[in-house]
Design brief:
This protein is mainly alpha-helical. It contains 14 helices and no strands. Helix content is about 75%, strand content about 0%. The radius of gyration is 21 Å and the shape is globular. It comes from Sphaerodactylus townsendi.
Length: about 300
């Protein structure tokens, strides 16, 4: 009986994928360049996080100038509020993208995620406030993964997801180095302008080049189909996790792995600058040039634990 169910599921998946490919091939009034592909998703992710990576150096300066007595505390609060809002809003945005399509929500998430960038030089207080609130829409990855799932078969998704994640890492390895170089030799203002330009380029790419991945035929019958509370409830998925022991163990492993990593990632540049007193004039640009995430985890801990004197 189990074998028959698996066969039926496979046939259903093939039918759904065939329907998607047929509609994609026919176009159906879809705007964009070419057919939806993983490369569209890769470019969107790279540009968004490249823009934010450029701001690593200016953000440290502005953060310390704005909150000189509570720099680390405010850094943690800003990232914490943003992360909490992202956790609460991700299921709702994902469910809405199932009804209205991925492209519109890619545009929405990228726009609001990058909206704080020019505020860094206009008003630091507004900059940090908008960063915190932008967590409501800072779920580009959720929409990107849904976009990739729409256009790939099951056996292709691991590779596609890996490519997207690798592109994200590559953008954060290269852009802080470029931003540090420009800030040292020119000014923080130039870095902010460049980051704003990259963000606008990303928005323009989504508007003009990214085709919709979710065909009309695969959406609910009614354009305004209602979204159930279960779809929008961020805790519903957590309750389902406990129903499968294997999934539960994987989730616990990932959570415990990323918990210290996320804390370190949100504060290590600030620690290097304010505590260890690394400067942009040092070799390797105070690790900005080298790409901190390319260092082994044990080496990063060793560097962070060194005596600043």
């Amino acid at each position: 009986m189990t074998g028959e169910k698996k066969k039926k599921k496979k046939r259903l998946n093939r039918s759904v994928l065939l329907a998607k490919k047929t509609v994609i091939r026919d176009g159906a009034g879809r705007q964009g360049i070419g057919e939806p592909s993983v490369y569209h998703a890769v470019v969107v992710i790279f540009l968004e996080f490249f823009a934010w990576g450029l701001l690593t150096t200016p953000m440290l300066t502005v953060l310390h100038q704005t909150f000189p007595q509570h720099t680390f505390l405010m850094n943690g609060l800003i990232h914490g509020v943003k992360g909490l809002l992202s956790f609460l809003s991700a299921p709702l945005i994902g469910a809405l993208s199932d009804v209205w399509g991925r492209k519109s929500f890619l545009l929405l998430t990228v726009f609001f995620t990058c909206a704080p960038i020019p505020l860094m030089k206009i008003s630091p207080w507004w900059y940090f406030a908008v960063i915190s609130m932008s967590g409501v829409f800072a779920v580009t990855f959720s929409v990107i993964f849904a976009y990739v799932a729409d256009i790939t078969q099951e056996h292709e998704r691991s590779t596609a997801y890996g490519l997207v994640s690798a592109t994200f890492a590559a953008s954060l390895v290269t852009s802080p180095a470029i931003g540090a170089y420009l800030a040292r030799d020119y000014s923080d203002t130039l870095v902010v302008v460049l980051a704003s330009g990259v963000a606008l380029l990303d928005i323009g790419f989504i508007l003009l080049a990214v085709p919709e991945s979710l065909p009309e035929e695969m959406r609910p019958v009614s354009w305004g189909a209602p979204i159930s509370w279960e779809q929008a409830d961020p805790f519903a998925s957590l309750r389902k996790v406990g129903q499968d022991s294997t999934v539960l163990l994987i989730c616990i492993t990932v959570f415990l792995s990323y918990l210290p990593e996320a804390g370190q990632y949100s504060s290590f540049f600030l620690y290097l600058r304010q505590v260890i007193r690394f400067s942009l004039g040092r070799p390797c640009g105070s690790l900005y040039w080298c790409g901190w995430n390319s260092f082994p985890y044990w080496l990063r801990l060793l560097l962070l634990s060194r005596d600043p004197t």
